[in-house]
Structure formats: C-alpha cells, structure tokens
Design a protein that fits this description.
The complex is a heterodimer of chains A (640) and B (162). Chain A has 640 residues and is of the alpha/beta class. In chain A, strands 2-1-3-4-5 form a 5-stranded mixed sheet, covered by helices on one side. In chain A, strands 13-12-16-14-15 form a 5-stranded mixed sheet. A 4-stranded parallel sheet of chain A has the order 10-9-8-11, sandwiched between helices. In chain A, a hairpin with a 5-residue loop joins strand 18 and strand 19. In chain B, a hairpin with a 2-residue loop joins strand 3 and strand 4. Chain B has a 4-stranded mixed sheet, with helices on one face. With 162 residues, chain B is of the alpha+beta class. In chain B, helix 6 crosses helix 7. Chain B has 7 helices and 4 strands; from the N terminus they run ααααβααβββα. Chain B folds into 2 domains: 60 residues, Arc Repressor Mutant, subunit A; 75 residues, 3-Layer(aba) Sandwich (Glutaredoxin). Chain B is 49% helix and 11% strand. The chains are: A alpha/beta (640), B alpha+beta (162). At the A-B interface, helix 2, strand 10, strand 12, strand 16 and helix 17 of A face helix 2, helix 4, helix 5 and helix 6 of B.
C-alpha cells in the first residue's frame, strides 16, 4: 500500500467513529485512570448501552494529563458539543447515557467542560485555564485518540514525517534536526542533531537505535503517559532516526513496572508492521528497520546510557567511562544512538512542520516544549507541556493550581533525585536546560514535586539520597561510599544527633561525590542535599542546634500531644485508632498519650474529628508537659 | 526438582540459549513461580552456560527480582517521591504492623507478602498501595486494616467457589 492509500484507509476508519452517526464515548484508561477506577466505568458503559440497546461506541483512550480528575469520560455527540466529565463512577453512568448519549441534556452538573481541538490541533478543554498556559506538541493527541489504533495517529498527521524523511538524504534529515535546536529530553540536554551526526559518521555495517524508556525517577511519569496514550509518535521517531544514522535495528528499553505501556507498545509495533511502516522495505523503499522491546528489571542506574546497554546485553547494569561514546561503540560494541522517549516523539513533528517552526518556540538555548509531571502538594496534579522558558511560578500556580489545601508553598523539587529543591524566591526561574542548571537543579527527568510548609527539607534531602544511595551500582568509590556517609550524616541530623560542623562536611562530601563519579547518578546525587543546604540552611540548623523539626516531620524530633481543652471528652476515636494502645482516658475524661508507648504513626491525628482537631505535633518533644496527666487542663504548650 | 524442570522447560527453549535472553528468562521464571529459587537460578545458569554465581550476581543487582516466595496477595507500598511526601512511610509501617511481618517478608499463612516499590507512576493519587493488581489511592494508616480486610474475604470466597 502507498502512504496515500494508508492515509485514506485511516481517514475512513477515523470518520466512522469521530464523525459517525452515533455518539462516541471516550474513556481514559491509562494507568492513572485505572488507579482511579476507569475500568469499572468502561464496563458500566458497555452494560448500560447493551441493556438500553443504545447505538453508541465506546473507545478506550489514553490520558489527557488531568490525573487528579480521573476517571475522565468524553462524549462526542453528532451535531452537538463534545463534553468531558470528570471523576466518573459507575453509579453516574446511567445518568450520562440517559442524559447525553440518548437525550439532549449534557448533564452539566457532572461535566468538567467541553473538548475542542483534535485532528491536527492539540486537544484542550477551554473551560480549564490550565490549558491557556500550555503548548501541547507531543501531548496533542493524548486522551483523545485510541492508542491501540494506528489509524487514529495517522489521521492526526502521523507518519507524515517518516514518509517525508524517506524521500530525503539522511544527512539532510540530520541537518533539519540540528537546525531545529532539539536537545535530548532525557535530562542532560545534549543537542540531538549532533548526536545523530556522530552516529552517522561512525563506520560500521551494524548500528543500533535505542529508546530510553527506563523512567526511573520516583515521581515522574511523562514517558509512561506518552507511551500509554500515543505510542506511535515514538516509534515513528525511532524509524526516522534509524534511517538517518544508518541503523536497521532498534530497541525500546522500558521499565517492567509499566506493564500497560509495554502492552500498548507491543500492539503499536504490530500495527505499524502490518501497514508496512516498520519492518522490511518500509513504504516500498529499500530501508528496513525492526524494533524490539527490552524490559528493564528495576535499576535506576540503567537510565545512564552505558549502563542501559549492559542491561540489554544481559549483564549487571553498570556504567563505564566514556569515551568511547555509545555513538562510536555502544551496544555489543557497535555504534549506538540512544535518545529519550520524548526526544523521538518530537522528531516526526520537526520533519512535518520544519525546523523553523520548532525553533520558533522556547527560549534562547532550549527550543520547543518540555513535558512535566506535576505531583506532590499541587491542586492539579498531572501532566503539563509548556514552551521552554515558562517560569516555575506559571508551572506551579497557573497550571498546577497552587498548593493543595490552602497551605503555604515552600519548595519545588525539579528533576527528581538528581535535581534540586528550589525555594519561593527562585520561582521566577524559567524552565529550560541552562537556567535550571544555574539555579542548582536540573531539567532531569521532568518531575516537578511541590512541597508545602508540612514538608521537612532535611527529610526530603534524606529521602532522595536514600534512593540514590540504594540505587548506586557500587562501581565508583566516591558514589558508593560517599552517598552512604552523606546519608548517615542526614540520619543523624534528622534524629537530633547532628553536629553543626556536619553541614559543611556534607557540602564537602557532596562535591567529592559529584566530581568523582562516572555516571549521571553519582554526579547528580548530591544536588538535593546541596540545594537544600543552599536555600534552607536554617532548617538544618534548627534540627542540629534546637533539636527541632520546623515542619514537624522528623519522627525523633516530634511528639504527638492531645490538647486538653480541645479534646471532646466523650469521643473515643483516637483510643480506638491507636494501634499500640498508647492512648488512655484520665480521670477528667481527657485522652492522654503515653509517650513511652507511642510509635508516632500519626493515626490519632488522622482520626481525630476535624471539628475538635485536638491532636497536635510538638517539636522538640520536650514541649509535652510532663505533668499533663495531673494538671494540664487548659494549659496549651506553646506551639512552634 | 522434576516439577521445576517441567515448569522451566517451556521457558528455556533452545532458541533462547543467548546471554541477552538471561534477564527476560529470569523475569519469566519469576512471573511463573513468583520468585527465583536457588534451583531455578542454577538451572538457568546451566542452560545459558554461565556460572551460577554470575546469574545470582545479576539477579541480585536488579530490584525486580525476589528470592523468597510471593504471598497470595502481594502488597506493594509505593515509596516514590510523591508518596513519601504524602506520608507513604507511615502507610508502610502501618502495613507491616497490621500484617505483623517485616518489609520483604511474608505472612505465615502465605496470604500476604509486603514489599516497598519505587514509584508506580500514580503520583497524583499518592500515597498508593498496590495489592494484587489493584491500586489503592490516597492511603492512610487508619485505612490499612480496611483495605486488607476487603482483599482477604474476597479471596476466600473465590477459593470456595473453585
């Protein structure tokens, strides 16, 4: 089949659903949708439509990036508005079917907004102001097309880039990518076109193209969403890369923790092969390219390119010194091109719309857009794609909706365990490769985690270091031992055993680990510690000098206390909720925590009815009056 | 041993006698048996023709592999960044207390095993716990008991039906 024929066939398949005579129901069933209960909603729709013998079609789609509003259902109705509903449960399904699928009532009380765009244009919900601040390129189709149907991708401009590329000289493609200013989206930001050129120049019969989908940052999920919602763009990008550098085989190295993404990728690869867009003599040309999936087995260090290749070879995933760079000697010693999921996803767009189009977006040194996973204490958790150079302020407050529960913003961790914690005063920082590096953070994986006043910065630094220390492969001494020593110090600090000179010692160790390690894991592991010391030194000092955790988080430095004048004497919630029977009732009927039994699990604070709010955390623990059992009525210790 | 050999025969097919197949083979065995036993690892070593110590070295390098059996209902508590900041550790501790086992342990009746995992990508629903294949969003220590009770009676009913 020629590409024109493929496009024609795709169009008729698409039109029958999206411009058909009957209503078309889209249900988001990516991992986040499923976690929120999307599958029972799908079942409920199918059942409801069957019992009413209603003429309508149901399609499972990916994720539009509004994770906190899942499950999302969109109803496309011929001759009427397309409406999106949020937090849908099986209980409201019959209302929606009766109201909007069969009737003319759009059930506005359940609706989130209307859906606009699609077919070449990015899909958006005009009622949500978040979309005004976004610029969606690789998320343009997410949550609207069926990721399991290649025709939906093709109708929305898919495989145009490849068709164009096959008529170009490989060097011309590389020039186009260079001109676009695209930089690697895996975090380091190396210019993509230059990498391709180096790989092209390497002389070898056999070359490989690898897609790094080992999204190991605990707090980032952009690659997962892209693969679950619109996987074909990544495959197309890889095929173009293979043609440009002269490779015939590709691998997608993906975490085993993403079973749905793997499943959808497999389907996508099969469909691309069936249409002749992948495999032998692609689109009738003499270019052949095959893609295999390699599943990761859970090692953060595998994200480092040389370590990742070891994993594919079936070895311990440990990095090695560069040079030689993988573009000269990579997988099985052959020249290998390795890029991130999102980097490949941009390639088809650059080829279809041209390098100038791409480089007109973004900032001076960073072109195009960036995709971020917004999580932590933000109102609108989920995905956002913005032009490079957008400020953190815009990202967290205009798109993320600010801090959840009306609390105070304290810090943002950007770039995962390799990134840094930036305070309020740095919110003007534009998000692009260079500005973030200057601020002490990195673009890294693209995870953006907001922290509020209830998060302890020393504890946060300890968390990230605990992660990198466990994930250190052990090859470089500075990383293996240095991260362990740093972690020991942080544990002392959070347990009230810290010494004031420890802060400078941490900085010294951090610099050694950074300078003495081979791969990105070791080189960036100290970032969270360095940035929290740089911007939140007072918290370290409070832990060390006053044995106090200002955010009331570090267990050894806090005590739970029941305020006698707030305790509703007849209520037993905390007594029953305490797993270690540490709470008793005194002779006045007031609940008292036995500090020697308390494990500080926090259950009492959670179960104390909000109208009393009698359980508080005190730091340092010595603030709990020792005499509370006898005469504490009405005496509230000063809360810090 | 004979039984194990039979189970492995489907996975250790002649076309896979290749070093690059080692990790996929181990993944498949774990998928089938729930864990990697010393016997299984030795069988793989013999098959791929590399020393048993190398197989063990590789298996222990990756977080995905476990060396003790999995419970009937594997409990995984997410300890990713978002979950940590939202109190994931308290949930993990509550889970260990409620099941009365250590992290990475298994209950005496083999009903539950408990593991910590690093991010399952549901950060917006933090903190999360995964039991069997269901994700439990926005967990708190007081919810732990409720969730465990909801899992266990369901399984008992199922086994009665069978």
């Amino acid at each position: 089949m020629t590409f024109e024929e493929i496009q024609k066939q795709a169009k008729s398949d698409w039109d029958s659903l999206y411009h058909g005579e009957v209503p078309h129901i889209l249900i988001g069933t990516a991992t986040c949708g499923r976690a929120a209960g999307a599958l029972p909603v799908v079942e409920a729709f199918n059942k409801e439509l069957a019992t009413r013998n209603a003429q309508a079609k149901v399609t499972e789609v990916g994720c539009i990036g509004l994770c906190s509003l899942e499950p999302l259902v969109t109803i496309i109705k011929p001759g009427s508005f397309t409406v999106c509903y949020n937090s849908v449960t099986p209980q409201v399904v019959s209302t929606l079917v009766e109201g909007y699928v069969l009737g003319d009532d759009p059930c506005l009380e359940l609706a989130l907004g209307t859906v606009e765009g699609g077919e070449g244009e990015a899909v958006y919900i005009p009622e949500l102001s978040k979309f005004e601040h976004e610029l969606r390129l690789i998320l343009r189709n997410c949550g609207y097309i069926n990721p399991g149907n290649i025709n939906h991708y093709i109708v929305n401009g898919g495989y145009n880039g490849l068709a164009k590329a096959l008529k170009m000289e490989p060097m011309a493609i590389i020039e186009e990518v260079k001109k676009s200013g695209l930089r690697g989206r895996g975090g380091a930001g190396f210019p993509t076109g230059i990498k391709w050129e180096l790989c092209r120049q390497a002389s070898s019969e056999i070359k490989y193209v690898i897609c790094n989908a080992d999204e190991g940052d605990p707090g980032a999920f952009m690659d997962r969403v892209v693969l679950e919602s619109d996987p074909q763009q990544v495959i197309e990008g890889m095929i173009v890369a293979g043609y440009a550098v002269g490779a015939r085989d590709g691998f997608i190295y993906i975490r085993a923790e993403y079973p749905l993404a793997i499943e959808r990728l497999k389907v996508a690869l099969e469909q691309a092969e069936k249409l002749g867009l992948l495999g032998d003599s692609i689109l009738g040309s003499d270019f052949s390219f095959h893609i295999k999936i390699a599943q990761g087995a859970g090692a953060f260090v595998s994200g480092a390119e040389t370590a990742l290749m070891m994993a594919i070879e079936g070895k311990r995933s440990m990095p090695r010194p560069r040079p030689p760079y993988p573009v000269e000697s990579g997988l099985w010693g052959k020249p290998t091109l390795l890029n991130n999921v999102k980097t490949y996803a941009y390639v088809p767009l650059i080829l279809s719309h041209g390098a100038e189009w791409f480089s007109s977006m973004g900032s001076e040194g960073s072109k195009g857009t960036a995709v971020f996973a917004l999580a932590g204490k933000m109102v609108n958790t989920g995905l956002a794609e913005v032009a490079m150079g957008t400020t953190l302020q815009e990202l967290i407050f205009d798109i993320g909706g600010g801090i959840w529960g009306g609390k105070q913003f304290k810090a943002v961790q950007i770039g995962g365990p390799s990134g840094g914690c930036l305070p309020q005063s740095m919110l003007d920082t534009p998000v692009d490769f260079d500005s973030l590096r200057e601020a002490g953070a990195i673009m890294g994986s693209g995870g953006v985690i907001a922290m509020d006043e209830g998060n302890c910065m020393v504890d946060a630094a300890k968390f990230f270091l605990d992660f990198t220390q466990k994930e250190s492969c052990g090859k470089c001494t500075t990383c293996r031992l240095g991260t362990k020593q740093m972690l020991d110090i942080l544990e002392d600090v959070t347990a009230g055993r810290g010494r004031i000179e420890d802060v400078d010692l941490l900085v010294e160790l951090a610099e050694d680990v950074r300078d003495g390690s081979l791969c990105g894991l070791g080189r960036t592991a100290p970032n969270p510690v360095l940035t929290t010391i740089r911007y939140f030194r007072d918290e370290y000092e409070a832990h060390i000098l006053e044995k106090r955790c200002p955010a009331l988080v570090c267990k050894e430095l806090i005590a739970y206390y029941i305020l006698p004048d707030k305790c509703e004497r007849g209520c037993e919630h905390c007594v029953l909720g305490c797993p270690v029977e540490a709470i008793t009732t005194n002779e006045k009927g007031i609940k008292v925590i036995d500090q020697t039994k308390c494990t500080k699990c926090g259950s009492c604070e959670l179960v104390c009815p909000p109208e009393y709010n009698a359980v508080v955390r005190l730091s340092p623990p010595s603030l709990v009056p020792s005499s509370q059992v006898k005469e504490s009525d009405g005496v509230i210790p000063e809360e810090k | 041993m004979e039984e194990l050999k039979q189970q492995l025969a489907e996975i250790l097919t002649p076309d896979r006698k290749d070093r690059s197949q080692l990790i996929p083979i181990l993944q498949q065995i774990q998928g089938k048996l729930g864990y990697l036993s010393p016997e299984a690892m030795l069988a793989v070593a013999e098959f791929v023709e590399i020393p048993g110590s190398t197989v063990y070295g590789i298996a222990t390098f990756y977080n995905q592999f476990r060396f003790t059996p999995l419970g009937k209902h594997p409990v995984k508590v997410c300890m990713g960044t978002a979950c940590h900041l939202a109190g994931g550790k308290l949930v993990l501790e509550a889970m260990a207390r409620e099941l009365d086992i250590e992290v990475s342990g298994i209950t005496p009746d083999h009903d539950f095993s408990l593991d910590r995992v690093a991010c399952i990508g549901c950060c917006a629903l933090a903190p999360v716990v995964v039991i069997d294949d269901s994700v439990y969003p926005r967990m708190t220590p007081p919810k732990v008991e409720e969730v465990l009770v909801s899992v266990k009676p369901a399984s008992q009913e199922q086994s009665e039906k069978q």
